[in-house]
């Protein structure tokens, strides 16, 4: 009866199969999966004069066509136009809000042009605060409309900043991360661009305008941040035209003298747009992958065209990649590093063995030389001894002969004396 009861119990025990790896090793995967499920929210404010190339650049960055309409130059005041788009790249979803200034720089009196922009930014903070103050908050699915980054478009005059630019940036810098960009940089030569950049930076510094600095305190991105900071303000070229370069179709601008095409640099921005001095829009980290084309620029002349000495920087494609990819890339990097170290150790070991072998071979060679030397001495000694022996033997023979002759003589004299 007891056996039956045990048998019944055994049947009722469920055997569970593991549905995944158990251990804190899987924590990054969990974070990645959750972030991918939630999607990302990214709000860009584009400030710049009408027709400066705001829409073209955004279209180029996101490799889409947001179908913006041209604005007129006759707006009585500055307005802000926000549009939200749902984008998806591989399995990463992005809720992108582009806020464009309309009629900026078109009024005769530009003194108050910055005010609508400041009001807009404040209104977004206010909306977020109101949500936070609610007794029953739903920040999880709240559409965060706070501006994460402001791309400030500077006219490529090659001279200096306009009063309007300084005034606007000065009024925005405490509220938003400003990334100044020199628009339509293909209209300015390489040397002019460098001088212009230096001039702009010195003007910004002397007027106390704080622009966004890529985070240098984060070890993982310190190097790339330093490079990006060096390139500020970025010179940008936007284009929606596809041009054939080699056998590839690329987004570029085609001119009678050649084609302007940018190079890409990948930049990881971790929580980069939420400055600590600003109200935190989301408690969680937002990881964004940016592809910004800056740095070494390229001008490719099309066949038969005149090569220009102009040289350009291009912010080309803003591109979001999944955290999973980041994680995989890091893991890959780590494995690569480990393999490299293993290879290094192997090489070191082989080198040491080779060195030891060389030392042993040298010792062997020395021994062999010593042996040869001794052998030669021994040979010479033997030859000398052989010679001595030969001389001795000859002497013995001569002596024996002499002795035999003297014996005969002795016998003869003895016989003679006997007869006598
Ligand atoms: P509004 O929204 O009307 O204020 O204009 P915008 O600032 O969005 O400018 P838009 O992108 O519509 O570009 C205006 C014109 O500039 C278009 O003819 C573009 O082809 C041209 N353009 C845009 N980017 C560049 C650039 O990098 N270089 C040059 N040379 N032209 C550009």
Automatic annotation (TrEMBL):
Compartment(s): Cytoplasm, Cytoskeleton
SUPFAM superfamilies referenced in this protein's UniProt entry, alphabetically: P-loop containing nucleoside triphosphate hydrolases (SSF52540)
Keyword GTP-binding attached: yes
UniProt keyword annotation of Metal-binding present: no
One GO cellular component, as annotated: cytoskeleton
Keywords on record: Coiled coil, Cytoplasm, Cytoskeleton, GTP-binding, Nucleotide-binding
Molecular function via GO: GTP binding
Segments forming a coiled coil: 346-402
Main location: cytoplasm
Organism domain of life: Eukaryota
Region forming the signal peptide: none
Every Septin-type G domain range: 38-304
The family this protein is said to belong to: Belongs to the TRAFAC class TrmE-Era-EngA-EngB-Septin-like GTPase superfamily. Septin GTPase family.
PANTHER family, per the entry: SEPTIN
Its job: Filament-forming cytoskeletal GTPase.
Complex and partners: Septins polymerize into heterooligomeric protein complexes that form filaments.
Protein name from the UniProt record: Septin
Provenance organism: Octodon degus (Degu)
Gene name as annotated: Sept10
């Amino acid at each position: 009866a007891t056996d039956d009861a045990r048998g019944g119990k055994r049947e009722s025990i469920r055997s569970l199969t593991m549905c995944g790896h158990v251990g804190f090793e899987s924590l990054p995967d969990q974070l990645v999966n959750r972030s991918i499920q939630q999607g990302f929210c990214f709000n860009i404010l584009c400030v710049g004069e009408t027709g400066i190339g705001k829409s073209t650049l955004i279209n180029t960055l996101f490799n889409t066509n947001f179908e913006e309409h041209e604005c007129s130059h006759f707006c009585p005041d500055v307005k802000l136009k926000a549009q939200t788009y749902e984008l998806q790249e591989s399995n990463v979803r992005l809720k992108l809000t582009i806020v464009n200034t309309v009629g900026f720089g078109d009024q005769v009196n530009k003194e108050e042009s910055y005010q609508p922009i400041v009001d807009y930014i404040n209104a977004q903070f206010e909306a977020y605060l109101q949500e936070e103050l609610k007794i029953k908050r739903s920040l999880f699915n709240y559409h965060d409309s706070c501006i994460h980054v402001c791309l400030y478009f500077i006219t490529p005059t090659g001279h200096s900043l306009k009063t309007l630019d300084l005034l606007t940036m000065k009024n925005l810098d405490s509220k938003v991360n400003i990334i100044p960009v020199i628009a339509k940089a293909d209209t300015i030569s390489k040397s002019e661009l460098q001088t212009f950049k230096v001039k702009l930076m010195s003007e910004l510094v002397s007027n106390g305008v704080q622009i966004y600095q890529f985070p240098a305190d984060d070890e993982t991105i310190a190097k790339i941040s330093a490079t990006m900071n060096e390139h500020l303000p970025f010179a940008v070229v936007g284009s929606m035209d596809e041009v054939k370069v080699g056998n590839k179709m690329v987004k570029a601008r085609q001119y009678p003298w050649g084609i302007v095409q940018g190079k890409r640099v990948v930049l990881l921005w971790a929580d980069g747009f939420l400055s600590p001095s600003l109200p935190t829009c989301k408690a969680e980290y937002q990881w964004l992958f940016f592809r910004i084309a800056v740095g070494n620029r390229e001008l490719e002349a099309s066949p038969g065209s005149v090569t220009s000495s102009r040289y350009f920087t291009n912010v080309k494609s803003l591109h979001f990649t999944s955290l999973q990819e980041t994680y995989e890339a890091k893991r890959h990097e780590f494995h690569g590093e480990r393999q490299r170290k293993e290879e290094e150790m192997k090489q070191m070991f082989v080198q040491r063995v080779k060195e030891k072998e060389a030392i042993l071979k040298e010792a062997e060679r020395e021994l062999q030389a010593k042996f040869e030397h001794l052998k030669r001495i021994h040979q010479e000694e033997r030859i000398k001894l052989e010679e001595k022996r030969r001389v001795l033997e000859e002497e013995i023979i001569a002596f024996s002969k002499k002795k035999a002759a003297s014996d005969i003589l002795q016998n003869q004299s003895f016989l003679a004396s006997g007869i006598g």
